[in-house]
Amino acid sequence: MSGWRQDRIGSALRGENPTVMARLPGSFAVMGDPQWLPGYSVLLTDDPGVERLSGLPRQRRLEFLESMAVLGQAVEDACAEADRSFRRINLEILGNADAFLHAHVWPRYEWEPPELVHRPVWLYTAERWQDPQSALGSKHDSLRAAITDRLLVAGGWLPED
Q1: Contacts (Cβ under 8 Å, ≥6 apart) of 75
Q2: Cα–Cα separations (whole angstroms), residue 21 to 57, 85, 94
Q3: How buried is 58 (Cβ within 10 angstroms: 0-12 exposed, 13-18 middle, 19+ buried)?
Q4: What's the pLDDT at 161?
Q5: What is the side-by-side strand order in the sheet with 20-24?
Q6: Alpha-carbon dihedral of residues 108, 112, 113, 116, nearest 10 degrees?
Q7: Which residue from 34, 99, 125, 158 could staple onto 152, CB 3.0 to 4.6 Å apart?
């Protein structure tokens, strides 16, 4: 396993996490490792010691939630432009597997299997999560760039069109 994967937040803080798209208030917007739902992104806290949302002081909690909304909107806009079958975004803060605060941003599509299209992504088979064919790679560069551009505009770093 790559070193940055063992310490996703620390590697983001050091500028070594290649999945980082943008620095947002209290967080990092990153592309998810599996991309079988293209555009899947994750919001990582910028404090590796925080395990859950309730572990943040109120103002930082609000910043994290606002950053989650900004990332969700960026993913929604980019995915809707890239694929006419885009349906919606699912936002989740779970924290069952990784012991640091993070939020999942799942784009959902009409082309998903009928038995799963209206169900949580966690019902997809374990094989889907490990499929090397849908692992984050260069084929996702254009979607990643579109999400990143929207994040930069939302953050006020670039002028809107």
Answers
A1: 39, 41, 89, 105, 107, 147
A2: 25, 24, 21
A3: exposed
A4: 41
A5: 20-24, 27-31, 41-45, 102-109, 86-92
A6: -10
A7: 158
Residue 45, C-beta contacts closer than 8 angstroms, at least 6 positions apart: 9, 26, 27, 56, 64, 100, 101, 102
pLDDT for res 2:
64
List the chain residues with pLDDT less than 70: 1-2, 155-161
Q: What amino acid occupies position 54?
A: S
> Residue 54 has which token pair?
């309730």
The radius of gyration of the chain's CA atoms, rounded to the nearest angstrom, is 15
Q: How does pLDDT run across 42-52, given as a tens digit for each residue?
A: 999 999 999 99
Residue pLDDT, tens place only, 87-109:
999 999 987 778 899 999 999 99
Separation of alpha carbons 157 and 102, rounded Å? 24
Residues 127, 66 contacting (CB under 8 angstroms): no
Measured between alpha carbons, how far is residue 74 from residues 28, 109, 151 in Å? 14, 16, 6
